[in-house]
Amino acid sequence: MSEPGSGSLPAQALPAAPSAAPRRAARRGWPHDDGYRPGKFTGWILPLAFFLLVEAGARLELIPARLLPPPSELAQTLWSLAARGELLPHIWASLTRVLAGFVIGSALAIALGLLVGTSRRAEALLEPSFQALRAIPSLAWIPLLLLWLGIDETPKIVLIAIGAFFPVYLNLVAGIHDIDHKLVEVGTSAGLGSAELIRHILLPASLPYLFAGLRGGLSLAWMFLVAAELIAATRGVGYLLSDGRESSRPDLVLAAILILALLGKLSDSLLRLAEHKTLRWRNAHRVARAKP
After folding, report:
1. pLDDT in tens, 38-59
2. Residue 228: which domain range?
3. CA dist., res. 188 & res. 191, Å (int)
């Protein structure tokens, strides 16, 4: 026991020290961030391991080369296409089609998403039709687009735009509907008109949803590219796929698939970088809230 007048407090009267675990978890942004920081090349581990296993299996004759050619054969095929001057024109043709279709489809999706998200009348009028159109497979559009638009570049770009439209539209509408109504009330009471309300409140608050839709739309644009380049195309990565199938060359088919995967990953990384720069304010706000 402590002596009277010594100024010390009994043990049971001492305040409990606050637990450091919640503070550390908040500082790390838990549960979204567990503190793990991957290396620069962590994402390459799985594909490189797969390529090494396929190469070893082909060398040991465990995997039939006619079904799954080794990566070394794919590299030779790509080098042969590049040496003949055929690879870059195919890649450029596909890139321009995807870019044009993605820009057109995303622009229409943003315009109509803002209209449907801010108007119940427009939502009641347009939403059922959009949901029905969304269920139509990409290949089902090809005969109709050929009849309407012919066999030049226009039907290919339109088909890619259709694929990019729906993810952007759906995510933007969901983002607008998820905005706190108090923000809209504050903007209305401040005298903001419809255009200013969209510019200063609705679009900034729904940007995370919009970027999620843009990334999904870009992914679908690359998927719809293959179907689009079946429309009387003589160039493009999808044309390489079709040519490899008709000539019974699995190395050409897999090389085209590899090109599509790399182009899709590169374009998604660029869009993700734009998202990170645009939404930097949100990340800074999260860090500030996590600080004790």
Report:
1. 777 788 889 889 889 988 888 8
2. 87-285
3. 5
